[in-house]
């Protein structure tokens, strides 16, 4: 598939520094030159108007591929909390409104779960990663899911987003407390990107 691109470069379609580092680490040493949006200051932020992770990831990958002329990898992910009917879901990054920080979003989530007991604080992270060509052709779609529970307060200094609140099943530490070497094997994004990595390595 790589020969179908004009360049053996792969643009990583995110300006989130934490997510960018995570993607670079998980993809590792693949036969593609990984490029950053920092190299393309003229490119706007892709819109995320769709109702599903798959649609949003596809729109973002196609947008960044078209704008840069490179094959592009983009993902969309979210936290789905059972006690909140699956919210914040695809709105996870916009959960507390425009301009809100990660801390603001965590604070809002905890406030909405304040009276929810431990046994009902189940949740899951979902990630869909898409690789697209500049002509909008989709080369690969991968999904990853990680189940766990929500804590009563933030724990840990690592990660980003909701990581300090999420304890994956089988562990006692949050994503923000776990070493990257462990998180990058079991997280939703890791599970999606490891499948993407397999595709990119064999393409």
Short characterization:
With 203 residues, the protein is an alpha/beta fold. The chain has helices at 17-27, 53-68, 102-112, 180-186, 188-202; strands spanning 9-12, 33-36, 71-81, 122-132, 138-150, 166-168.
Q: In percent terms, what proportion of residues is strand?
A: 15-25%
Secondary-structure class: alpha/beta
Shape: globular
CATH class: Alpha Beta
Helix content: 25-40%
**Cα distance spanning the termini:** 5 Å
* Overall average pLDDT: 94
The count of domains is 1
Number of DSSP strand runs:
6
Q: What is the C-alpha radius of gyration, as a whole number of Å?
A: 17 Å
Total helix count?
5
Largest sheet strand order: 2-1-3-4-5-6
Q: The CATH topology, please?
A: Maf protein
User: What about the largest sheet?
Assistant: 6 strands, mixed
The CATH architecture designation is Alpha-Beta Complex
Order of helices and strands: EHEHEHEEEHH
Query: Could you name the ranges where pLDDT drops below 50 across 5 or more consecutive residues?
Result: none
């Amino acid at each position: 598939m790589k020969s179908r691109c004009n360049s053996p470069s792969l643009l990583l379609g995110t300006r989130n520094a934490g997510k960018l580092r995570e993607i670079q680490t998980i993809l590792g040493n693949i036969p593609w030159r990984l490029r950053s949006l920092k190299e393309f200051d003229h490119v706007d932020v892709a819109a995320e108007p769709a109702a599903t992770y798959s649609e949003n990831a596809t729109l973002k990958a196609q947008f960044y591929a078209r704008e840069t002329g490179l094959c592009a990898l983009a993902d969309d992910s979210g936290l789905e909390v059972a006690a909140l009917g699956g919210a914040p879901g695809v709105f996870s990054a916009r959960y507390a409104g425009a301009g809100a920080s990660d801390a603001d979003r965590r604070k809002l989530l905890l406030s909405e779960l304040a009276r929810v007991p431990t046994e009902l604080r189940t949740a899951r992270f979902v990630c869909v990663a898409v690789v697209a060509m500049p002509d909008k052709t989709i080369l690969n779609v991968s999904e990853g899911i990680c189940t766990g529970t929500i804590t009563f307060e933030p724990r840990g200094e690592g990660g980003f987003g909701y990581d300090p609140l999420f304890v994956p099943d089988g562990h006692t530490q949050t994503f923000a407390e776990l070493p990257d070497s462990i998180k990058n094997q079991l997280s939703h994004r890791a599970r999606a990107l490891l499948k993407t990595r397999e595709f990119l390595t064999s393409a």
